[in-house]
Amino acid sequence: MINKEEFQDEIGDNHISLSAKNPVRDDAFAISDDEKIEKIKKDVESILLTLGMDLTDDSLKGTPNRVAKMFVKEIFGGLNPERKPKASTFDNNYKYGEMLVEKNIIVYSTCEHHLLPIIGRAHVAYISNGSVIGLSKMNRIVEYYSKRPQVQERLTMQIVQELQQALGTEDVACVIDAKHLCVNSRGISDIESSTVTSEFGGKFKDSVTRREFLDYIKLETKF
């Protein structure tokens, strides 16, 4: 019989997502970013001391503070809803009715199971239903949802759902191809493998439209 700790390890080692939403507590923003940095700074210091590092060394003196600021303001900054990009849309006055594809959007995220990087590319597309969105906003949406402890499946879904809401259409698709350093640098240590996830909405569920999208991004994976 598997115990609770073994069950939790199995979920993490197999990168299983149990929720389509990031598991954030209700009191996640009860304290300020500066307060979080101070608390995390002490925690990082404790970890390094436990590992036996000499924090009086000039190279390590500022590490706890650097890591704390990086966590709060950079790699996990997407947890804060105040940083959510405004997805401004515009009327499709030029009546462009074909697929719009923004490909090779760089993804830098962090695996929530081991807090190691996820690095890859997102390919996003939509078909206008009367509204269009600025190209840079698509990149910013990808960046915002990437900057939090994540699983790739959830990230893919969140990007599509955010664009569907902003554009008022179900006709949105996203494919992410990424390397997980929790697979590449530890555990099985397979440096070549990558993970591909996809989410297709509306017209992209049709095999012809989906194939057109995949041809644009030159992804040979079969769905």
UniProtKB/TrEMBL annotation:
Top-level division of the source organism's lineage: Bacteria
Signal sequence, start to end: none
Entry keyword annotation includes Phosphoprotein: no
Reactions the enzyme catalyzes: GTP + H2O = 7,8-dihydroneopterin 3'-triphosphate + formate + H(+)
Documented EC number(s): 3.5.4.16
GO cellular component term of the entry, any: cytoplasm
InterPro entries associated with the record: GTP-CH-I_C/QueF, GTP-CH-I_N, GTP_CycHdrlase_I, GTP_CycHdrlase_I_CS, GTP_CycHdrlase_I_dom
Keywords: GTP-binding, Hydrolase, Metal-binding, Nucleotide-binding, One-carbon metabolism, Zinc
Pathway info: Cofactor biosynthesis; 7,8-dihydroneopterin triphosphate biosynthesis; 7,8-dihydroneopterin triphosphate from GTP: step 1/1
Domain GTP cyclohydrolase I: from-to ranges: 40-217
Entry binding sites for Zn(2+): 111, 114, 182
The keyword Zinc is assigned to this record: yes
One GO BP: one-carbon metabolic process
Gene3D superfamilies: 1.10.286.10, 3.30.1130.10
GO molecular function (one): GTP cyclohydrolase I activity
Known partners and oligomeric status: Homopolymer.
Family recorded in the similarity comment: Belongs to the GTP cyclohydrolase I family.
Protein's name according to its UniProt entry: GTP cyclohydrolase 1
Organism annotation: Flavobacterium pygoscelis
Gene transcribed to yield this protein: folE
